[in-house]
Amino acid sequence: MSQPSLNQWQGCLAGVLVGDCFGFPYEDLPRKKTFPNTIEFIQDDLEKIKIGEMIPYDRGIKKPGNPSSPDGKPLPSWMSSSGSSSGGASNSGLRQYTDDTSMTITFAKFLIDSNNSLDYVNLARRFSAEYELDKPKMRGYGPGVKRLLTKFQEVNFKDVFQYALETFDGQGSLGNGCGMRISPVALYTINDPTLERLVDITIDSCLLTHTHPQGIFGGIFQALAVRQALLFGGRRKEKPSAIEFLNTFETEFKSILTNGATSRRTATYRTGYQIYQDKINVIRRFLEGGPSSWDLKKVIDELGNEVLSPKSIPTALFCFLASFQEIDFINTDNHFQRAITLAFTLGGDTDTIGGMTGAICGAYVGLDGFPQKFVASCEASGKILNVAEKLYGKCMTQILLNIRPVFNSSGFSVENPGNELHPG
C-alpha cells in the first residue's frame, strides 16, 4: 500500500464537514419538515448543490456575540477570530456545520499544536472555549456535553476526567460524540503500526466526555475505519472489495484486545467490544446479500440510526462499504455522494452518521473524489482544508523523524522528543 497523501487527509476532514453540513437538515426533528427525509428530496438537494443551486436552509443562527475565554481572560492565539473553527459570522448561502465539525477541527488543531506531550486539560479548555464561541451559532451540542463543558469552566478545569464518569448514574455516556470527532487521531497516528498511539489517544480523549465502554469502543471502531480507508485508498491500483475491506478491518479490530501494545488500555473497556463485533457480522450479511436484498427499515433496525455509539458508528462503516457498488435507488456513480446519500436516507442522527461516513469515505477516495461544489458549499471549507494540510505536515514530520510515543506514570501518551525510534 502506498503512503497516504495530502489529498486523503483533506478528503477525510472535508468528509466530516460535508456529511455534517449536508446531513443536518435531514435530521428527523419536527422543526425540519421543510427538509423531508426522503430519497427523492435528498438526491434533488445534492444535485442542486453540485450545480450551484442550493436549496435555502436557515438554522436560525443568533446574532453573534463577543465571547471571551471561559475564565474571562483574553482568548489565546489558537482561539482568535482568525483561528477559531467557528469561521466567524455565518456565510449566506452556505450550509452550516454543527458540533461534529466544530469539535473535530478543535481536536485536529490540538494535535497540530502539540509538542512533546498531549495535555488533555488543554484539550478540555479548547473544547469549552469553542463551545462558548459556538453558542450564538446554534451548533447543536447535546445536553450532556453542554453540561460537561460548562462544568469544566466552573471548576477551572480541575480533575477534567472525573465529571464524565459521574454522568448517567455513574455509567458514563455511550453516545457517539467520541466517534464523531475522532478522525484526526487516525490521521495523526498513521505512522504507528502497533496501533498503540491510536488506541491510547482515542481512549484518553474520549474519557473527557464519554466513559461508557461502548462509547470508548465506538471511538476506536471509527478511528480504525478511517485508518484503514487511508491505507487502502489513495493511489492503490487494485482496490479491495467491500468484503475484503471489512475482513481486514475485523482482523485489526479484534487484535486490539490481544495485541500486547494495545491490550493494556483496552482491557478495562472490553465489555464494550462484543456489540461492535456483532455489528460487523450484520454488515457482512448485508454486503453479501447485495443492494437488491436490502430493506432499509431492516438496516435501521439492525444497525441503527440513533445517537448511541453502537447504533450509529457501525452504520457509517456500512454506508461507506455498501457504496462500493451501484445502489439502484441512488442515482449517482460517485462513491462519496452515494455513501452520504445512503447515510442521510436512513434518517435519524443524519449529521453525525453523515459526518462519520464522510470521514471514512473521504479518507478513501481523497478530496479529488468529491463532486464539485460539495466542499465549497459548506461553511469554513477553506479552514478545514487548511487544518488538514497542517495536520498532514505534522504527521509527515513525525514519519521523517521516526518518532514514537512513550508513556508517563499515569499511562497517558507522551510524544517522544526524539531519543527513541521505531525499530527497523
Automatic annotation (TrEMBL):
Q: Report the cofactors.
A: Mg(2+)
**What EC number(s) are associated with this protein in UniProt?**
3.2.1.143
Biased composition of type Low complexity is found at: 80-93
Span list, region Disordered: 57-95
Q: Which GO terms describe its cellular component?
A: mitochondrion; nucleus
- Cofactor info, note text: Binds 2 magnesium ions per subunit.
Q: Kindly state which keywords UniProt assigns to this record, in alphabetical order.
A: Magnesium, Metal-binding
Annotated residues that bind Mg(2+) are located at 98-100, 349, 351-352
The GO terms describing molecular function are: metal ion binding; poly(ADP-ribose) glycohydrolase activity
Alphabetized Pfam families for the sequence: ADP_ribosyl_GH
Q: Its catalytic activity?
A: alpha-NAD(+) + H2O = ADP-D-ribose + nicotinamide + H(+)
Family to which this protein belongs: Belongs to the ADP-ribosylglycohydrolase family.
Q: What is this protein called?
A: ADP-ribosylhydrolase ARH3
User: What organism does the UniProt record list as the source?
Assistant: Allacma fusca
